Structure formats: structure tokens, C-alpha cells
């Protein structure tokens, strides 16, 4: 339809130029406009246009350079701080000190626990940074003893409650349960007054 209108405008020269001058019919160069009208612009006509390029229909999302630079800086910092010194220390230790070897020891000599390791770095870590096997064993015994005491107390408390239920007894004749918060607070206030009483008037 638009091609027919353009051909009609180009065909009759004088009539076409007259219509174009009054803005009734558009030229070929004006067909890309968003709207034009016939009959003194009473009826608007919307023309769909495509203003994009002919490239691909995908939009690539690229992360900012700030995060990349930050990651690279952190990697460089930790590599230079940890990997390089540890690698250099390991190389020098293996080169100049070397691993331990078995030798003849006196009969009255008792080796230390870190001497059972072969590498010098492992010996240093076991001697200065780790617990000895004796300490680990004693800690395990202490934890086991604590659990055994708690279990025995729970067994005694259960036996006590079952005995009260069986004999229909109660603990009123033994003691009167009270809240010791007031007594403890009064004792604390008394100690505070004894220490700082000469600074304040009573």
C-alpha cells in the first residue's frame, strides 16, 4: 500500500508535488516516520519501524573489572604470603637438613615423642604446636571421668525418686528448699560496703 502511494506521488508531477507540499501524502524518504495522516491529519496511521542494527539478538553480560582485580590482588597476596615462604622453607629444609635416620642409641636413653617422626618440619610441629600423646590421653581420661560422674549422679537421682515413690516418702524432713539469690545478693552487698563503705555515707 505504501509503495502504491509513493508511486502515485511520483507519477503526476504537479499534483504529487502539491500534495507533498501540503503534507497530505508523504514522500518515500518519509515512510519511516512513526505516523502520518490522510484528509488533513484526521485519521492517524501508525507505521511500525525497526531502528535496531542487524547484529545478534544476544546481550553479553560481563562482570566488572573491580571484582576481578580484587580477586587477583587477594590471590597474589596470599600466594606471596603463604605459598612462597612455605615452599622456600620446605626446599631449604630438605636440602640442608634432610630427614632423620635410624642410629644406635644407648640403652638408658628414652626417645621423646617427637623423635619418632622422620621429617624435621613434622618434628617441629609435633614438639611446639601439638599436644603430647600423654596430654591427649589424660584429657580423654578426664572427659571420660566427667561423663561417668554425671551418669552416676543421674542413676542415684533416679534411684532416690523411685525410693520416694515406693515408700511414699518426701524430703520435707531433710531440708526446706529456698532460693539463695537474696542471701547471695545480701552477702555481696555487705562485702561491697565493707570495702568501700568509708567512701560513701550510710
Automatic annotation (TrEMBL):
User: What InterPro entries does this protein's entry cite?
Assistant: NADH_UbQ_OxRdtase_B5_su
Taxonomically, the superkingdom here is: Eukaryota
> What keywords tag this UniProt record?
Electron transport, Membrane, Mitochondrion, Mitochondrion inner membrane, Respiratory chain, Transit peptide, Transmembrane, Transmembrane helix, Transport
Tell me where it resides: Mitochondrion inner membrane
Listed GO cellular component terms? Answer: mitochondrial inner membrane
Q: Where does the protein principally reside?
A: mitochondrion
Q: Give yes or no: UniProt keyword Acetylation.
A: no
| Membrane topology note | Single-pass membrane protein
Q: Which residues cross the membrane?
A: 77-97
What's this protein's function?
Answer: Accessory subunit of the mitochondrial membrane respiratory chain NADH dehydrogenase (Complex I), that is believed not to be involved in catalysis. Complex I functions in the transfer of electrons from NADH to the respiratory chain. The immediate electron acceptor for the enzyme is believed to be ubiquinone.
Q: Can you tell me which family this protein belongs to?
A: Belongs to the complex I NDUFB5 subunit family.
**Quaternary state and interactors:** Complex I is composed of 45 different subunits.
* UniProt name for this protein: NADH dehydrogenase [ubiquinone] 1 beta subcomplex subunit 5, mitochondrial
Q: Which organism is it from?
A: Dibothriocephalus latus
Amino acid at each position: 500500500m505504501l509503495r502504491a502511494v509513493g508511486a502515485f506521488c511520483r507519477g503526476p508531477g504537479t499534483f504529487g508535488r502539491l500534495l507533498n507540499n501540503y503534507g497530505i501524502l508523504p514522500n518515500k524518504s518519509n515512510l519511516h516516520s512513526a505516523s502520518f495522516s490522510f484528509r488533513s491529519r484526521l485519521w492517524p496511521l501508525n507505521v511500525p519501524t525497526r531502528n535496531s542494527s542487524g547484529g545478534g539478538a544476544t546481550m553479553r553480560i560481563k562482570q566488572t573489572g573491580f571484582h576481578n582485580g580484587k580477586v587477583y590482588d587477594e590471590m597474589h597476596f596470599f600466594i606471596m604470603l603463604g605459598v612462597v615462604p612455605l615452599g622456600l622453607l620446605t626446599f631449604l629444609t630438605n636440602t640442608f637438613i634432610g630427614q632423620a635416620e635410624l642410629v644406635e642409641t644407648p640403652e638408658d636413653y628414652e626417645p621423646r615423642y617427637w623423635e619418632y617422626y622422620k621429617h624435621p618440619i613434622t618434628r617441629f610441629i609435633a614438639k611446639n604446636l601439638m599436644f603430647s600423646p600423654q596430654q591427649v590421653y589424660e584429657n580423654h581420661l578426664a572427659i571420660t571421668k566427667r561423663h561417668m560422674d554425671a551418669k552416676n549422679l543421674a542413676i542415684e537421682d533416679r534411684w532416690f525418686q523411685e525410693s520416694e515413690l515406693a515408700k511414699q516418702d518426701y524430703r520435707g524432713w531433710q531440708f526446706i528448699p529456698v532460693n539463695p539469690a537474696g542471701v547471695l545478693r545480701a552477702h555481696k552487698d555487705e562485702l561491697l560496703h565493707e570495702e568501700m563503705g568509708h567512701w560513701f555515707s550510710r
